Amino acid sequence: MNNVDKFILKRCGFREDFDWENRFDLKTKVVYHDKLYEVSTVDLGLDHSFGMGKPLYYETMIFLVDGGKNEFSDFQLRYSTEEEARISHENIVKAFERGEIKWKKLWYLFLCLLVMVFQ
User: Fold this and answer.
1) What is this structure's pTM?
2) What domain range includes position 33?
3) pLDDT tens by residue, 16-34
Protein backbone atom coordinates (compact mmCIF):
# COMPACT_ATOMS: atom_id res chain seq x y z
CA MET A 1 0.00 0.00 0.00
CA ASN A 2 1.36 3.42 -0.87
CA ASN A 3 1.42 6.44 1.43
CA VAL A 4 -1.64 8.03 -0.22
CA ASP A 5 -3.69 4.87 0.44
CA LYS A 6 -2.51 4.80 4.07
CA PHE A 7 -3.37 8.49 4.47
CA ILE A 8 -6.88 7.96 3.06
CA LEU A 9 -7.56 4.94 5.28
CA LYS A 10 -6.33 6.80 8.36
CA ARG A 11 -8.49 9.86 7.54
CA CYS A 12 -11.50 7.55 7.23
CA GLY A 13 -10.87 6.22 10.75
CA PHE A 14 -9.09 2.95 10.02
CA ARG A 15 -6.57 1.73 12.58
CA GLU A 16 -2.95 2.66 12.01
CA ASP A 17 -1.72 -0.88 11.24
CA PHE A 18 -4.65 -1.83 8.97
CA ASP A 19 -3.61 -3.17 5.57
CA TRP A 20 -6.58 -3.65 3.23
CA GLU A 21 -4.65 -5.84 0.79
CA ASN A 22 -3.40 -8.26 3.46
CA ARG A 23 -6.18 -8.10 6.02
CA PHE A 24 -7.24 -10.98 8.24
CA ASP A 25 -9.98 -12.90 6.41
CA LEU A 26 -11.16 -16.42 7.34
CA LYS A 27 -13.85 -18.20 5.33
CA THR A 28 -14.97 -21.74 6.19
CA LYS A 29 -17.79 -23.61 4.50
CA VAL A 30 -19.97 -25.87 6.67
CA VAL A 31 -23.07 -27.99 6.04
CA TYR A 32 -26.08 -27.59 8.33
CA HIS A 33 -29.47 -29.22 7.66
CA ASP A 34 -28.42 -30.05 4.10
CA LYS A 35 -27.56 -26.41 3.33
CA LEU A 36 -24.12 -24.96 2.69
CA TYR A 37 -23.14 -22.05 4.94
CA GLU A 38 -20.03 -19.93 5.17
CA VAL A 39 -18.59 -18.81 8.50
CA SER A 40 -16.82 -15.55 7.71
CA THR A 41 -14.46 -13.75 10.09
CA VAL A 42 -12.79 -10.56 8.86
CA ASP A 43 -10.75 -7.59 9.99
CA LEU A 44 -13.02 -4.57 9.63
CA GLY A 45 -10.20 -2.11 10.21
CA LEU A 46 -12.62 0.32 11.86
CA ASP A 47 -13.65 0.28 15.51
CA HIS A 48 -17.24 -0.98 15.69
CA SER A 49 -17.66 -0.61 19.47
CA PHE A 50 -19.25 2.82 18.97
CA GLY A 51 -17.42 4.08 22.07
CA MET A 52 -18.82 1.36 24.33
CA GLY A 53 -15.95 -0.64 25.81
CA LYS A 54 -12.88 -1.97 24.06
CA PRO A 55 -12.42 -1.29 20.34
CA LEU A 56 -13.97 -4.02 18.16
CA TYR A 57 -12.08 -4.48 14.89
CA TYR A 58 -12.98 -8.05 13.88
CA GLU A 59 -16.33 -9.61 13.01
CA THR A 60 -17.82 -13.06 12.42
CA MET A 61 -20.99 -13.60 10.42
CA ILE A 62 -22.67 -16.69 8.96
CA PHE A 63 -24.03 -16.68 5.42
CA LEU A 64 -26.04 -19.11 3.34
CA VAL A 65 -23.76 -19.77 0.34
CA ASP A 66 -26.67 -19.64 -2.11
CA GLY A 67 -27.74 -16.32 -0.59
CA GLY A 68 -30.98 -15.30 1.03
CA LYS A 69 -32.21 -15.09 4.60
CA ASN A 70 -31.53 -17.96 6.96
CA GLU A 71 -31.67 -18.68 10.67
CA PHE A 72 -28.20 -17.14 11.13
CA SER A 73 -28.82 -14.00 9.06
CA ASP A 74 -28.80 -11.77 12.13
CA PHE A 75 -25.84 -13.49 13.79
CA GLN A 76 -22.82 -11.29 14.31
CA LEU A 77 -19.95 -11.35 16.78
CA ARG A 78 -17.23 -8.73 17.10
CA TYR A 79 -13.83 -8.90 18.76
CA SER A 80 -10.96 -6.66 19.82
CA THR A 81 -8.07 -8.85 18.71
CA GLU A 82 -7.21 -11.15 15.84
CA GLU A 83 -6.58 -13.94 18.34
CA GLU A 84 -10.11 -13.64 19.81
CA ALA A 85 -11.55 -13.62 16.28
CA ARG A 86 -9.56 -16.68 15.19
CA ILE A 87 -10.50 -18.70 18.31
CA SER A 88 -14.18 -17.82 18.03
CA HIS A 89 -14.21 -18.66 14.31
CA GLU A 90 -12.68 -22.07 15.02
CA ASN A 91 -15.15 -22.74 17.86
CA ILE A 92 -18.15 -21.87 15.69
CA VAL A 93 -16.90 -24.12 12.85
CA LYS A 94 -16.31 -26.99 15.32
CA ALA A 95 -19.81 -26.55 16.74
CA PHE A 96 -21.23 -26.83 13.20
CA GLU A 97 -19.14 -29.94 12.54
CA ARG A 98 -20.35 -31.58 15.77
CA GLY A 99 -23.95 -30.70 14.93
CA GLU A 100 -24.19 -28.60 18.08
CA ILE A 101 -24.81 -25.26 16.45
CA LYS A 102 -28.04 -23.62 17.48
CA TRP A 103 -29.04 -20.00 17.47
CA LYS A 104 -29.50 -20.06 21.26
CA LYS A 105 -25.96 -21.37 21.72
CA LEU A 106 -24.62 -18.66 19.44
CA TRP A 107 -26.55 -16.06 21.42
CA TYR A 108 -25.04 -17.44 24.63
CA LEU A 109 -21.56 -17.24 23.05
CA PHE A 110 -22.26 -13.63 22.10
CA LEU A 111 -23.27 -12.79 25.69
CA CYS A 112 -20.09 -14.42 27.01
CA LEU A 113 -18.00 -12.34 24.62
CA LEU A 114 -19.90 -9.22 25.62
CA VAL A 115 -18.97 -9.85 29.23
CA MET A 116 -15.30 -10.22 28.19
CA VAL A 117 -15.39 -6.93 26.28
CA PHE A 118 -16.77 -4.92 29.18
CA GLN A 119 -14.47 -6.34 31.88
Assistant:
1) 0.74
2) 22-117
3) 777 777 788 899 999 988 8
The answer to whether the Cα torsion of 105, 103, 91, 20 is positive or negative is: negative
Is residue 32 in a domain? yes
Residue that wins the pLDDT comparison between 72 and 20: 72
In a domain, 1, yes or no: no
Q: How far apart are CA 61 and CA 86, in angstroms?
A: 13
